[in-house]
Design a protein that fits this description.
Structural class: alpha/beta
Radius of gyration: 26 Å
Strand content: 5-15%
Shape: globular
Distance between the termini: 88 Å
Number of strands: 8
Largest sheet: 6 strands, parallel
Order of helices and strands: HHHHEHHEHEHEEEHEHEHHHH
Number of helices: 14
Helix content: 40-55%
Length: 418
């Protein structure tokens, strides 16, 4: 009783509102907002209902609630479908080219097309994108050309990265897409930092990553930085069920990645990643919140990786063909959108054939042209690290120049640009 009176006196003399800051009915600890209890119970997954998955369409492409229809124009819907099918067609050709030894590596996007296109359509070109390595559809939507794709995969003289990256590690200043890095999760804290720099500039950052990348320490650091520094960043997790050969049950035991948002004090959305309209609505809502509040959002898109993780992977070693075929047949984001379009008179079999034939033709032409182009001049590997080339690199460049000239019969210099 004496202690309570002492605290009341201090609070009163310090001109602190006693009723606001002190009550025997609520804890005063600065580390959490909480209440008292006299029951000693564990708090765990059983304590909460699972986070629901937001959707707009059913599996047959029907709008379930008209209030959730994004009411996009016919032109936008057609672009969504064409970009998704263009990506699928390009994936098939480039995957097969790698199997033929014509490029060194490739990663397909089968089954995840709606996560790319739906999110990209909800953003503006000024918004900054940090990708992982399975967001090619975002680039398609933003205007990254077939020539750009092919040149990067071949590492030829037209490659924006000057042949310095593995295939599928795209990047473009022009469309605000930060160059992809191979090490997992490096882009997540980078995105938080970029968003901090863009506060108050009416731009958001979107950062894509898989549920496997969310197991890296970088992801947790990024979430905490973004929450405490209040950064306008959308953490977009493509939860496709597998991190290369590791299923989600071996990666985490919580309620997916969405459940981590509230733990860091971040608002969260969970969406059907195979529903392009749902992804569009969710990303649009996330962006509006980021801009209004200058705070982050965790957006988890639940989807399924139909293809192998990459050309270095054989997914039949860790999942059944029946499982893959079931997802391909019943939850294809492309099929779902096509059924919607056909039901609304926006698409038919003739348009499908005409478009797919054109897409194949355009892709094969860009592919054939890229294959013929020379590699960048080898001098390029010494450039762009520093604004002005330092003496030690100049020395190395001169030494290599002399070496290649002396032993030029041993080097395929004809394959490189002059």
């Amino acid at each position: 009783m004496a202690t309570r009176k002492f605290l009341q006196t201090i609070l009163k003399n310090g001109k602190i509102n006693h009723h606001k800051f002190y009550s025997s009915e609520s804890p005063l600890f600065p580390g959490a907002r909480t209440t008292w209890t006299e029951r000693l119970d564990f708090t765990g997954p059983h304590s909460y209902s699972p986070i629901p998955v937001y959707r707009v369409m059913d599996r047959q492409g029907n709008i379930i609630k008209s209030s959730q229809d994004p009411k996009l124009s016919n032109e936008v819907i057609e672009k969504m479908y064409k970009d998704m099918t263009l990506l699928k067609t390009m994936d098939k050709i480039l995957y097969e080219s790698q199997r033929q030894g014509r490029i060194s590596f490739y990663m397909t996007n089968y089954g995840e097309e709606a996560t790319h296109i739906g999110s990209a359509a909800a953003l503006d070109m000024e918004d900054l994108v940090f990708g992982q390595y399975r967001e090619a559809g975002v680039l398609v939507w933003r205007g990254f050309s077939l020539k750009d794709f092919m040149s990067q995969c071949y590492g030829n003289v037209d490659d924006l990265g000057k042949g310095r990256q593995m295939p599928v590690h795209y990047g473009s200043n022009k469309i605000n897409f930060v160059t992809i890095s191979s090490p997992l999760s490096t882009q997540i804290p980078q995105a938080a930092g970029a968003a901090y720099a863009l506060k108050g500039k009416n731009r958001v950052v979107i950062c894509y990553f898989g549920e496997g990348a969310a197991s890296e320490g970088d992801a947790h650091a990024a979430f905490n930085f973004a929450a405490t520094l209040e950064c306008p960043v959308i953490f977009f997790c493509r939860n496709n069920g597998y991190a290369i050969s590791t299923p989600t049950k071996d990666q985490y035991r919580g309620d997916g990645i969405a459940a981590r948002g509230p733990g860091y004090g971040i608002n969260t959305l969970r969406v059907d990643g195979n529903d392009v309209f749902a992804v569009f609505n969710a990303t649009k809502k996330a962006k509006q919140y980021c801009l209004k509040e200058n705070k982050p959002v965790v957006l988890e898109a639940l989807t399924y990786r139909i293809g192998h993780h990459s050309t270095s992977d054989d997914s039949s070693a860790y999942r059944s063909k029946d499982e893959v075929d079931s997802w391909r047949q019943f939850d294809s984001p492309i099929n779902k959108l096509r059924m919607f379009m056909e039901a609304n008179g926006l698409w038919n079999a003739d348009k499908e054939k005409e478009w797919i034939d054109k897409a194949k033709k355009d892709i094969l032409e860009a592919f054939a042209d890229a294959e013929k182009r020379p590699k960048p001049n080898w001098h390029e590997m010494f450039k762009d690290v520093y604004k002005f080339m330092p003496k030690h690199l100049t020395k190395q460049l001169n030494e290599m120049q002399s070496h290649v000239e002396k032993y030029k019969e041993h080097y395929p210099t004809k394959n490189y640009a002059a």
